[in-house]
Amino acid sequence: MTHVPHLSGAVDLSKLPSASASSAGSPAPRGSGDSYAIALDEQNLNEVVQQSAQVPVFLIVWSEADAASVQARDALTAAVDAAAGRTLVGTIDAQAHPQIVSALRAPGVPFVAVALSGQLQPLYAQNIPAAQVSELVQQVIDGAAQQGLQGTVAPYSSAPATSEPAAPALTPAQQAAQDLFDSGRYEDAVTAWKAVIAQSPADELAAQELRRSELLARVNAPVQEGASPLETTLAAADQEFLSGDLPTAFNRLLAAFQAAEGSERETIRVRLLDLFEIAGDDPAVVQARARLAGLLF
């Protein structure tokens, strides 16, 4: 049997956020064929979790800002789809739904749990190989069947494959840098992406991946004793950003920016701009950019 690290502690699903209106939701990002994955929000969360009375309901917290969590999401949805209705998965965008993340007590991204008959059990909080994910999903299905959960559910979508233009192939240097990132070697990925940019200063992909690599390198670096107040503030904002709580991260940095002077003020400004680029068009970015502009001018 494949060993998969499990987390302890159950979550009371009655305390998860709910909304007065019910929504069928939208399928989570997938390729083609039957999909048993659905993107969760405050409107459809409880409705989906209620199906755990029939089949196991997996939940995964992920973030576009974290490549490992995107891979974990895709591996889990693929394994669930392969089960052909004997289970389903709800995906939770940590940046878009921090209230759900908090209610689930997710320590970060990725975070995977399963609901069985209304009881949520944390499973793992790291990216594991796809083969192990598939085996774990099957183990959960088998265990649920022994508890009487032997139902099936209809797919959320059965859309035919769409012909989308293939993404441009990575150059050898880009691929090498991406491989380092995917393997969790974030410091080495930073060095590799900087080398790509040195050769191609206009490479927008490299610039974006460098920002993400630097973020993960900072968050995963050993804790330094005697950190300055500024370093402590920057580190706290990184953790909040990565957990999906963008407003809190931005508010922390903007408050520090307002109080700072000289070089510290510039350090905070650059960090804010980097996080803005990583977050993309998140509504919190629009508000924070406006506040930053007001403080600058």
Topology:
Blueprint: E1 11-12, E2 26-27, E3 37-39, H1 45-49, E4 57-62, H2 67-82, E5 88-93, H3 98-104, E6 111-116, E7 119-124, H4 130-146, H5 172-182, H6 186-199, H7 204-220, H8 229-242, H9 246-259, H10 262-279, H11 283-296
Parallel strand pairs: 3-5, 4-5
Antiparallel strand pairs: 1-7, 2-3, 4-6, 6-7
Helix pairs in contact: 2-4, 5-6, 6-7, 8-9, 9-10, 9-11
Give the overall shape, derived from the CA principal axes: globular
| CATH fold title of the largest domain | Glutaredoxin
Largest sheet: 7 strands, mixed
Q: Order of SSEs, N→C?
A: EEEHEHEHEEHHHHHHHH
Number of contiguous helices: 11
Stretches where pLDDT falls below 50 for ≥5 residues? 1-32
This entry's quaternary arrangement is single chain
Distance between the termini: 61 Å
CATH class of the largest domain: Alpha Beta
- How many structural domains are formed by the residues? 3
Looking at CATH, the homologous superfamily of the largest domain is Glutaredoxin
Mean pLDDT rating: 83
Taken as a percent bin, the fraction of beta residues is 5-15%
Number of strands: 7
Spatial order of the strands in the main sheet? Answer: 1-7-6-4-5-3-2
**CATH level-two architecture of the largest domain:** 3-Layer(aba) Sandwich
Global Rg = 21 Å
Can you give the helix content as a percent range?
40-55%
Task: Give the structural class.
Answer: alpha/beta
